[in-house]
Amino acid sequence: MKLGRLNHVGVVTASMDDCIAFWRDTMGAEVIHAPFDMSEQGVRIAFVDTPDADGGNSGTQMELIEPLPGGAIAAWLEKNPGGGQHHLCFEVPDIHAAKAELEAMGKRVLGEPRMGAHGTLIFFVHPRDMQGILTEFMETPKGH
Ligand SMILES: CC[C@@H](C(=O)O)C(=O)SCCNC(=O)CCNC(=O)[C@H](O)C(C)(C)COP(=O)(O)OP(=O)(O)OC[C@H]1O[C@@H](n2cnc3c(N)ncnc32)[C@H](O)[C@@H]1OP(=O)(O)O
Ligand SMILES: [Co+2]
Fold it and tell me: What is the pTM of this model?
């Protein structure tokens, strides 16, 4: 297996407004995608990026996640009421090949590839098979 770049760190919050205010106003990150619902995944999400030395975006993204009622993330937030780091997402060139390779290693892939926030297919691997880290794999967007 050869991982591609780290695309984003997923962070769960009980309050999208508070979380955006912290990362934008206190820490100087830029909101590159305003909050939007992905109801099929039970989440409302936004993306921030951090500035590089010239003030442009470095490509270091955080995905801010507020659960919609009833989904897996709502249950996670109940167990972790302060929110916090939730998953890492790595890019791969071919999502189906990555799934097959991980499954051949005996890793538990959680469901079938589905549409992710960047408009390419994603899947998750169980944290117990990934050194305790819930890991998302996403197909690299075309042209990147
Ligand atoms: C918006 C789209 C997308 C994108 O494009 O970027 C997203 O990122 S969506 C993000 C939200 N979606 C998901 O997280 C989907 C995948 N997650 C799941 O399917 C479940 O959350 C889970 C990982 C299978 C856990 O659910 P469940 O088994 O019901 O919960 P438990 O509490 O029983 O946990 C079992 C086990 O796993 C540990 N765990 C749970 N979550 C995490 C985590 N985020 N990081 C590390 N470890 C985690 C939990 O502590 C349990 O451990 P043990 O007790 O030791 O077994
Ligand atoms: Co994600």
Answer: 0.96
Q: Which residues are near ligand 1 (CB < 6 Å)?
A: 10, 38, 41, 43, 45, 63, 65, 72-73, 76, 86-87, 89, 110, 116-117, 122, 124, 126-128, 132, 134, 136
pLDDT tens-place string over residues 73-86? 999 999 999 999 99
Question: 6-139, superfamily in CATH?
Answer: 2,3-Dihydroxybiphenyl 1,2-Dioxygenase, domain 1 (3.10.180.10)
Residues 6+ apart with CB under 8 A from 129: 106, 107, 108
Please state, as a whole number, how many other Cβ atoms lie within 10 Å of the Cβ of residue 21: 11
d(CA 81, CA 19): 14
